[in-house]
Specification:
By secondary structure, the chain is mainly alpha-helical. Helices cover about 70% and strands about 5% of the residues. Among the domains are: about 50 residues; about 220 residues, Ribosomal Protein S8, Chain: A, domain 1 (2-Layer Sandwich), CATH 3.30.1370.10; about 70 residues, 2-Layer Sandwich (GMP Synthetase, Chain A, domain 3).
């Protein structure tokens, strides 16, 4: 090994030692610097901690001081409230004492008043006794004498005035009323036609009678059952007669027969079809009759359903007088009288036209036709003064001038010569009662009075009444008629229980 290499190795070793020592010295310096930094951080933290503690203590002290101040304020408020309450209580006690004193004084005054009134009553009694002694009459006798004298004088005065009024006004009033009524009747003149209870149907030939009767009478039985009228086939040439008190049923039967005669095919199925078609035509005709009546009277604003009900009156009679014709006549007469007397013309016209509207549904609703009509008009929102006319024309003393006018117009229309037939009305009433008795029993579907009321044909519901029950039902109806009605001869009750089943083969 050469000296140069050895020198290089030594130089390297010395450099390494020196570097190591230098690095160690540097590391010690860094450690010392880190410790100093750590100590500085700890010192800063302690300073901050102390500052925070001081701030926290200051805040706590401030909170405590604020709480003490609030408590002091509350104590002051409570003290003030207590003082106010004590003052109020003192005032209340003072007022209570004053009230008690006033009550005591009031009681004393009341006692004094009672004593004074007692003394006054004693004085009055003493004076009355002296007066009775002087006059020689008791108090009751004196009162009676005075009242009798006053009544006599007043009666004489009233009689004198009444006599003067009668002498001055009776002739004038009678003359004026006769002029008004005569003028109204002359301005409205209408022919009078009484309704009959039979209708004649013309036939093209007498051979048609046999076809209408049908095999074993099945066609005529079906017609009578569906329409509720009696069909009389006699020797009258080319004519048969429909008998029944109900105009609607007779018209339906007549229309049905006319359709059957025109068609030529007469059997139960065709009869049922034409009866239904005739009923629909009658409903349309009733609506038309109601429209025509309203138009003729010049009345507006009526509900279409009410007009339909009004049209039913075309097929209703009252003592043989057509109800719709009578209603029109009453409406016209009432309107003319209202013009002369200064009453409400519109109310009189509407009231006169609708005064008998209850008769259109009285066979469907219980009660008399005045009350039924009043409730019907109220149902259709007509004014009270119009609805009242239904009741007014049957009252002895109507409450309004319009009611008196309608009552007078009703009497004028009914009293015209030949306008009504009392016997026909009694007959219609009897057959109506017959039908009503039968339909009042459970299980009765419908009932028709035929043969001028000598026979009652009753149709029972087959699902409700069995065969044995049919005998009991017929007997019960006959017994009820015998107990409640008066009639000449006897009434035959025919009960029909028919079960009809319809099915289609397709």
């Amino acid at each position: 090994m050469t000296p140069t290499v050895i020198a290089g190795i030594l130089a390297l070793a010395i450099g390494a030692v020196i570097g190591y020592l230098a690095r160690k010295q540097q590391a010690l310096k860094e450690i010392d610097s880190a410790e100093r930094k750590a100590d500085a951080i700890v010192a800063d933290a302690k300073i901050k901690e102390r500052d925070i503690l001081l701030q926290t203590r200051d805040k706590a002290l401030k909170i405590i001081e604020d709480a003490k101040k609030e408590e002091d304020n509350r104590r002051k408020d409570l003290a003030q409230m207590q003082q106010r309450l004590e003052r109020r209580e003192s005032l209340f006690d003072q007022k209570l004492l004053e009230i008690q004193e006033k009550q005591t004084k009031l009681q004393e005054k009341t006692t004094q008043i009672d004593e004074t009134q007692s003394e006054i009553e004693k004085l009055k009694d003493a004076q009355a006794a002296k007066l009775e002694e002087v006059a020689g009459l008791s108090r009751e006798q004196a009162h009676a004498l005075i009242i009798e004298k006053a009544e006599k004088e007043a009666h004489e005065i009233v009689l004198d005035r009444v006599k003067k009024i009668e002498q001055l006004g009776s002739d004038e009033v009678n003359a004026k009323s006769r002029i008004l009524i005569a003028d109204a009747m002359q301005r409205y003149a209408q022919s009078v036609v009484s309704e009959n209870t039979t209708t004649v149907v013309q036939l093209p030939s007498d051979d048609m009678k046999g076809r209408i009767i049908g095999k074993e009478g099945r066609n005529i039985r079906t017609l009578e059952q569906l329409t509720g009228v009696e069909i009389l086939v006699d020797d009258t040439p080319q004519a048969i007669t429909l008998s029944g008190f109900n105009l609607i049923r007779r018209h339906i039967a007549k229309r049905t027969l006319e359709k059957l005669i025109h068609d030529g095919r007469i059997h139960p199925g065709r009869i049922e079809e034409y009866v239904e078609a005739s009923k629909q035509e009658m409903a349309a005709e009733m609506k038309k009759a109601g429209d025509e009546a309203v138009y003729e009277m010049g009345v507006t604003g009526l509900d279409p359903r009410l007009i339909q009900i009004l049209g039913r009156l075309k097929y209703r009679t009252s003592f043989g007088q057509n109800a719709l014709t009578h209603s029109l006549e009453v409406g016209h007469l009432a309107g003319l009288l209202a013009q002369q007397l200064g009453a409400n013309v519109s109310v009189c016209k509407k009231g006169g036209l609708l005064h008998d509207i209850g008769k259109a549904v009285d066979h469907e609703v219980e009660g008399g036709h005045p009350q039924i009509g009043y409730e019907l008009l109220k149902k259709f929102n007509l004014p009270e003064e119009v609805a009242y006319q239904c009741i007014a024309h049957h009252e002895d003393s109507p409450k309004t001038l319009e009611g008196i006018i309608v009552k007078v117009a009703d009497a004028l229309s009914a009293s015209r010569p030949g306008a009504r037939r009392d016997n026909a009305e009694r007959y219609l009433q009897r057959v109506t009662e017959l039908e009503g008795i039968a339909t009042g029993f459970e299980g009765v579907d419908k009932a028709y009075a035929i043969q001028a009321g000598r026979e009652l044909r009753v149709f029972a519901a087959p699902d409700v009444v069995d065969d044995s029950g049919a005998y009991r039902l017929a007997k019960a109806i006959a017994g009820r008629i015998q107990e409640t009605m008066q009639y000449p001869g006897e009434v035959r009750v025919t009960l029909i229980r028919e079960k009809r089943v319809i099915e289609f083969a397709r």
